[in-house]
Design a protein that fits this description.
Helices cover 14% and strands 45% of the residues. The chain has 203 residues and is mainly beta. It has an 11-stranded antiparallel β-sheet. A hairpin with a 2-residue loop joins strand 9 and strand 10. The longest helix has 9 residues, at 33-41.
């Protein structure tokens, strides 16, 4: 099957879709990493805004992002110097639809090998929503993890041979959520800065 004819930057930015800040009241006091992880795994509805920077052996780019997550449904709007000013990415948890101007491309997420076959990139789409919130993906074995000085917050995580480094957290609506993180494997590095998380009710 031929690869999707999309800019490499758009494809990699779309990977972050499958999840990802609000007025910060007092966060809930948690006694352990396990308690913090359980609360974040139950968090499924939010809006977020920020920016990300992508670097591979072939390019180095950045873009602003606006993210809307409602359960398994996601909408991501990208703008900035990537040439993706009119790009919207939607996912229902089963498929990924990329719209750029008059062009539309659909990828099947129910098949874990579909993205690799269509684009040549082997990346863990189902894990990214969990990593962005600061918790491991429950469907993958944890190779290693380390908490920081605050024992409830993850500092580094290794899953599926990827390294995720959590460099900064901030309180948002009774949660402490990542505001700066780096996702890296081999020559691919994605740095994410989240300026605001706005959490909403799932009802």
């Amino acid at each position: 099957m031929p690869r999707t004819n999309l800019p490499l930057a758009v494809l990699l930015l779309a990977l972050l879709l499958s999840a990802c800040a609000g007025q910060p009241p007092r966060p809930v006091t948690e006694s352990s990493w396990e308690e913090h992880r359980a609360r974040l795994q139950a968090l499924t509805h939010w809006d977020a805004s920020g920016k990300l920077a992508l670097r591979t052996s072939e390019l180095s780019e950045s873009a602003s992002l606006e993210w809307r997550q409602r359960g398994s449904s996601s909408t991501l709007q990208l703008s900035g110097p990537l040439g993706v000013n009119a790009t919207t990415v939607d996912s229902d948890g089963a498929s990924l639809v990329i719209r750029q101007g008059e062009d539309t491309h659909t990828l099947d997420l129910s098949d874990p090998l579909e993205f690799e076959r269509r684009t040549g990139w082997d990346l863990p789409l189902q894990a990214l929503p969990h990593w962005l919130k600061g918790v491991p993906a429950p469907e993958l074995a944890v190779q290693d993890l380390e908490v920081g000085q605050d024992p409830t917050l993850l500092q580094t995580l290794h899953q599926d041979d990827w390294e995720i480094r959590y460099e900064q957290y901030a309180p948002f609506d009774r949660y402490r959520l990542p505001t700066r993180l780096t996702i890296q494997r081999a020559t691919t590095t994605v740095r994410v800065i989240i300026r605001s998380w706005e959490l909403t009710s799932s009802s």
